[in-house]
Amino acid sequence: MVRVKPFAAIRPPKQYVEEVAARPYDVLNSVEAKAEAGEKSLLHITKPEIDFDPIIDEHSQPAYDKAVENFKDWQEKGWLVQDEKPYYYVYAQTMEGRTQYGLVVCAHTDDYAEGKIKKHELTRKDKEEDRMIHVRIQDANIEPVFFSYPDNDEIDAIVNKYIVGEPEYDFVAADGFGHHFWVIDDQADIDRITEIFAEIPAFYVADGHHRTAAAALVGAEKKAQNPDHHGEEEYNWFMTVAFPDSQLKIIDYNRVVKDLNGLTQEQLVAALAEDFEIREEGAEIYKPGKLHEFSMYLGGKWYSLVAKEGRYDDNDPIGVLDVTILSNLVLDKILGIKDLRTDKRIDFVGGIRGLGELSRRVDSGEMAVAFALYPVSMQQLVDIADSGNIMPPKTTWFEPKLRSGLAIHKLS
């Protein structure tokens, strides 16, 4: 059973929200962030290296110092203001006519340590350390993590009670995604949400594995430094937006490879025929339509690849994944890519960019071949997390991404 609690968010006054709200730190490089950041943008806090000319190393001490300075300035200027009392919040996102409704809550770091907050990806120590530094120096969770939870009718009913009213924030960002935000201010509703989550067995990390790990590590640091630790201090909690499983959609996460491992295009196609039924689809983009079907872009043409029976194990939650099938039968067996985390010959392209991005990168000569996959389902993610298994790298891509800056959680 998971623990949640309300918190007094630091957030923008309504008139500033569109200027403050920003895309997450990890979907923009520094050059893109500098071009995108207006005067009040949270990017000056989450990517402070952009305030230097030329842009400096994001991991340098001057960048960290600037992040702290900017966070303080934003509060002094009234661009970020803390609520007077703890609340829960509803944060809804609209993409392509579909809206998902999440609750902004604080989760407990002990639940992560005890496995009640379940992950499906491995984390890297260098990325954990980077996120730890940001949490530590700001004494705050500046950006939320993204969780899912099993559907619950009573939580839906409470959320529905608020979303019929006027939202606190309601805007469409430059990328066309809508963002809507309500404050849950009735104490009876706040108490009931806390009680309901105490009966929900688990959270699932959808996006933000490194931020979740970093929050837990900072909590453990502060615990070790506090001889009077009792477990309810604010540093034991971290901010998340939690969505019902059924409302979330995972989109494809595709692969591009720089060379053919010494093969000609004809030899690659011949090698693939051992494990796949191959059909040439022509120059028009071809998108996989079902599990175990892939599309490949090679030499100006799209191909359909369907994995042959017996080449994968439907009873293995990892082995049945299309990312595993592609990794085992193509990337490793034919192209010689053994480690997706470290091999510089492969890159990953989120489905939000469209399959045209795959053909563009191949046609430009930057890459030699591209592979598109059918997306993983939420049920597959839950099954793997429940079994204690870990998905291969770069398996899930959630859209829309949470907008940063709508709420910030202070640790003290």
Features of the shown structure:
21 strands, 9-stranded mixed beta sheet
Radius of gyration: 23 Å
Uncertain stretches? none
Give the distance, in angstroms, between the N- and C-terminal Cα atoms.
25 Å
**Largest sheet composition:** 9 strands, mixed
- Average pLDDT over all residues: 95
Beta-strand content bin = 15-25%
Tally of strands: 21
Specify the oligomeric state. single chain
Helical proportion, percent range: 25-40%
Q: Which structural class do the helices and strands define?
A: alpha+beta
Structure annotation, total helices: 13
Q: What best-fitting shape do the alpha-carbon axes yield?
A: globular
Task: Describe the overall structure.
- The protein is 31% helix and 24% strand.
- It contains 13 helices and 21 strands.
- The longest helix is centred in the middle third of the chain and has 17 residues.
- The two termini are 25 Å apart.
- The model has no long low-confidence stretch (mean pLDDT 95).
